[in-house]
């Protein structure tokens, strides 16, 4: 894929980058070099390669998917100005 000067100007406009006419040919070469590198990456055979989350094999840490109150409700409301049991008491804001 090759990018022309009009496309470079459009990319600069969309990215909100001020580009002078003298810079357009240089940017065109840079963008074309980037796109050719990406095309080279698509030629690599990755069939049979598992997706990785890291370069070292590791398993994700998992926890039990259970709904709890955390067991510390009293500690949470202890610093509240007002509370009723384990609930925050707030002033009425809607009449």
TrEMBL record:
Family per record: Belongs to the GatC family.
Coiled-coil intervals, chain numbering: none
Organism from which the protein derives: Phreatobacter stygius
Protein biosynthesis is among the record's keywords: yes
Subunit structure: Heterotrimer of A, B and C subunits.
Keyword Lipid metabolism: no
EC number(s) given by UniProt: 6.3.5.-
Class of the enzyme per the UniProt entry, highest EC level: ligase
Keyword list, A-Z: ATP-binding, Ligase, Nucleotide-binding, Protein biosynthesis, Transferase
Gene Ontology molecular function: any one: ATP binding
Domain of life: Bacteria
Protein name per Swiss-Prot or TrEMBL: Aspartyl/glutamyl-tRNA(Asn/Gln) amidotransferase subunit C
Task performed by this protein: Allows the formation of correctly charged Asn-tRNA(Asn) or Gln-tRNA(Gln) through the transamidation of misacylated Asp-tRNA(Asn) or Glu-tRNA(Gln) in organisms which lack either or both of asparaginyl-tRNA or glutaminyl-tRNA synthetases. The reaction takes place in the presence of glutamine and ATP through an activated phospho-Asp-tRNA(Asn) or phospho-Glu-tRNA(Gln).
SUPFAM superfamilies: Glu-tRNAGln amidotransferase C subunit (SSF141000)
PANTHER family cross-referenced by the UniProt entry: GLUTAMYL-TRNA(GLN) AMIDOTRANSFERASE SUBUNIT C, MITOCHONDRIAL
GO biological process: glutaminyl-tRNAGln biosynthesis via transamidation; regulation of translational fidelity; translation
Substrates-to-products reaction catalysed: L-aspartyl-tRNA(Asn) + L-glutamine + ATP + H2O = L-asparaginyl-tRNA(Asn) + L-glutamate + ADP + phosphate + 2 H(+); L-glutamyl-tRNA(Gln) + L-glutamine + ATP + H2O = L-glutaminyl-tRNA(Gln) + L-glutamate + ADP + phosphate + H(+)
Gene3D superfamilies the UniProt entry points to: Glu-tRNAGln amidotransferase C subunit, N-terminal domain
């Amino acid at each position: 894929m090759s990018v022309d000067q009009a496309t470079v100007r459009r990319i600069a406009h969309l990215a909100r980058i001020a580009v002078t006419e003298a810079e357009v040919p240089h940017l065109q070469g840079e963008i074309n070099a980037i796109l050719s590198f990406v095309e080279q990456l698509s030629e690599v055979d990755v069939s049979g390669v598992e997706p990785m989350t890291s370069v070292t094999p590791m398993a994700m840490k998992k926890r039990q998917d259970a709904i709890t109150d955390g067991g510390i409700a009293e500690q949470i409301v202890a610093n509240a100005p007002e509370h009723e049991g384990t609930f925050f008491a707030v002033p009425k804001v809607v009449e």
